[in-house]
From TrEMBL:
Residue numbers spanned by region Disordered: 527-583
GO cellular component: NELF complex
Residues of the signal peptide: none
Composition skew (Low complexity), residue ranges: 569-583
Lineage: Eukaryota, Metazoa, Chordata, Craniata, Vertebrata
GO BP terms in the entry: negative regulation of transcription elongation by RNA polymerase II
Full protein name: Negative elongation factor B
Pfam families in UniProt: COBRA1
UniProt cross-references to InterPro entries, sorted A to Z: COBRA1 (IPR010405)
Coiled coil: none
PANTHER family per record: NEGATIVE ELONGATION FACTOR B (PTHR13503:SF3), NEGATIVE ELONGATION FACTOR COMPLEX MEMBER B (PTHR13503)
Length: 583
């Protein structure tokens, strides 16, 4: 406990023991030991008997003096470090040399740690001693740990790894939340709110202003993204940079070539829309990547691969298409639309680019613009034509039935092209948000086979389940249940556990709206096999318990949620060639 005192010429318990062992008059020996090792202040000696008269033990007195002096010394260390004197760090190093032998003493340790904390460059020998001792490493300040980590990537990785795992767990928990809503979903929190998350704040603190540690974290994120294809690592890459931006850490922001691009994109994500001015700025950054700086494209593609970025880009694309419809213009004639598609394509090619190390912007397939988008708009026109037909007086109506099939080229692109598939999926969400049952029943079967099974990804299913709550009353019809369950969800729930979970989430929320005969069959079909994970079993148990409770006491009719479409309709002049409803 008092290791290190002899090195500084201060007596410890062993010295007292030896003195008492060899002396003939123990009381005199103790008195002499106290005089030699007490507070060397002549006037104090005559005052100490007064404390004895008040029954105050000498230990208590010395401890209070010690604590006061220690606090004063720690304040002085901070004052010296914050001062402007040229030799301030020299003074602190001198103090470190004197105090470090006592670093294992609990009462002195805070002083040593305070000195270490305020030294911008701790002597290598001392850093190694701290790193080698688990107890010392644990209690030292993050400022000291940064100096250890920057030359010990494995140790830094051990510290960061649990945080990265926690981040992914939190994101997945949000996607599988039991709360289904079109208004409060995965994309609802603002960028600034997301950056207040525990993991982002901890990582930001661990990095501080250290560029080397920042680069290490980015490398960890790239490696994990490559290993897992998990796009949440792309989100963290952007959030981390913007968290440092919020704190004005110019030492890092000024050297990250993606900073201004990410800053501009962050503003778009906040607004959930890329306006013309910001679109030009983003295009300027992309066009400004020079030869020899091609690796920057890898990082830009990761930032665009962030689901919050792609969500914003696709919503902006849908809104852009609305405007084109109103202007009787073709998709190929819109520079803003082409830029949005370019960025979507770059983001979706992130994994391939980083994996191949070929840092070249993927070429957008021209037919997405010339064939897929017109096909998608023809689906919109079909829907519009049918809607108008229904509003005509009976004598003017024709025997027009709602189309049940989709253009072949539309289905082909959903299956073969990433960018087209992403837009097709968001169009389905848009239709669901408008509570358009007919269009939804027409589109859902086409989602069974999509590029890389994108329609069965967690983010799309999370959003779709929330949007389907707007059509809750339709689940009382056999036709709609067949389209949603038989035509889409049940086609892959047995082979994809995430689909099983999302299907149970939906049923847990809407079971009271589903036809009783259909509900019974669904509950039987969705019973998890023995090898299913705990979350699936837990959801199924919750469902069966709810159904049992419902049998005992039927629920009161629930109010349908209020609707905020999020996309602003564009008013279009009524002409024979242009639909007047928003896309």
């Amino acid at each position: 406990m008092f290791a290190g005192l002899p090195e500084l010429g201060i007596s410890n318990g062993e010295d007292l023991k030896e003195t008492l062992t060899n002396c003939t008059e123990p009381l005199k020996a103790i008195d002499q030991f106290q005089t030699e090792n007490g507070i060397l202040l002549p006037t104090l000696q005559s005052a100490l008997p007064f404390l004895d008269l008040h029954g105050t033990p000498r230990l208590e007195f010395h401890q209070s003096v010690f604590d006061e002096l220690r606090d004063k010394l720690m304040e002085r260390v901070a004052t010296i470090a914050e001062g402007k004197e040229e030799d301030r760090y020299g003074k602190l190093e001198e103090l470190l040399e004197k105090s470090f032998p006592l670093v294992k003493m609990p009462s002195i340790q805070p002083v040593v740690m305070q000195v270490l904390k305020h030294l911008p460059k701790v002597p290598e020998k001392k850093l190694k001693q701290v790193m080698a001792d688990k107890d010392l490493y644990k209690v030292c300040a993050v400022e000291v740990k940064r100096q250890i980590w920057q030359d010990n990537q494995a140790l830094f990785g051990d510290e960061v790894s649990p945080l990265l795992k926690q981040y992914i767990v939190e994101k997945e928990a949000a996607l599988f939340s039991n709360d289904l809503s079109v208004l409060h979903n995965f994309f609802s929190p603002s960028p600034k709110t997301r950056r207040q998350g525990e993991v982002v704040l901890k990582l930001t603190q661990m990095i501080g202003k250290n560029v080397k540690l920042y680069d290490m974290v980015l490398q960890f994120l790239r490696t994990l993204f490559l290993r897992t294809r998990n796009v949440h690592y792309c989100t963290l890459r952007a959030e981390l940079l913007m968290s440092l931006h919020d704190l004005d850490i110019s030492e890092i922001c000024s050297v990250d070539p993606c900073h201004k691009f990410t800053w501009c994109l962050d503003a778009c994500i906040r607004e959930k829309f890329v306006d013309a001015k910001r679109a030009r700025e983003l295009q300027g950054f992309l066009d400004g990547v020079k030869k020899g700086q091609d690796r920057v494209l890898g990082d830009l593609s990761m930032i665009l691969c962030d689901p919050f970025a792609s969500n914003t880009l696709v919503l902006s694309t849908v809104r852009n298409l609305q405007e084109l419809l109103g202007q009787d213009a073709l998709p190929r004639d819109s520079p803003d639309l082409l830029l949005l598609l370019r960025m979507l394509s770059l983001g979706q090619g992130a994994w391939d680019m980083i994996d191949s190390q070929v840092f070249k912007e993927p070429r957008l397939e021209l037919e997405v613009v010339t064939r897929f988008l017109p096909a998608m708009l023809s689906v919109v026109v079909d829907d519009y034509t049918f809607t108008v037909e229904q509003k005509l007086p009976s004598e003017e109506k024709t025997s027009l039935n709602y189309p049940t099939t989709l253009p072949d080229v539309f289905i082909k692109f959903l299956q073969e092209n990433r960018v087209a598939c992403e837009m097709g999926l968001y169009y389905v969400l848009h239709i669901a948000k408008q509570r358009n049952k007919n269009a939804l029943q027409r589109l859902l079967p086409a989602l069974v086979e999509t590029h890389n099974d994108m329609a069965f990804g967690d983010i799309f299913l999370h959003l779709l389940m929330g949007h389907l709550t707007l059509l809750s009353d339709e689940f009382g019809t056999e036709e709609f249940c067949t389209a949603v369950y038989d035509g889409f969800l049940l086609t892959s729930f047995a082979s994809k556990e995430n689909v099983h979970r999302h299907t149970l989430r939906l049923l847990l929320h809407l079971h009271h709206k589903v036809l009783p005969s259909r509900l019974e069959a669904l509950v039987k079909t969705l019973e998890p096999p023995k090898q299913s994970s705990d979350p699936v079993k837990d959801l199924y148990t919750q469902l069966t318990e709810k159904l049992e409770a419902q049998k005992k006491s039927p629920p009161q009719p629930a109010e349908s949620p209020s609707l905020d479409l999020g996309l602003h309709p564009v008013t279009v002049p009524t002409t024979a060639s242009a639909p007047t409803t928003p896309i």
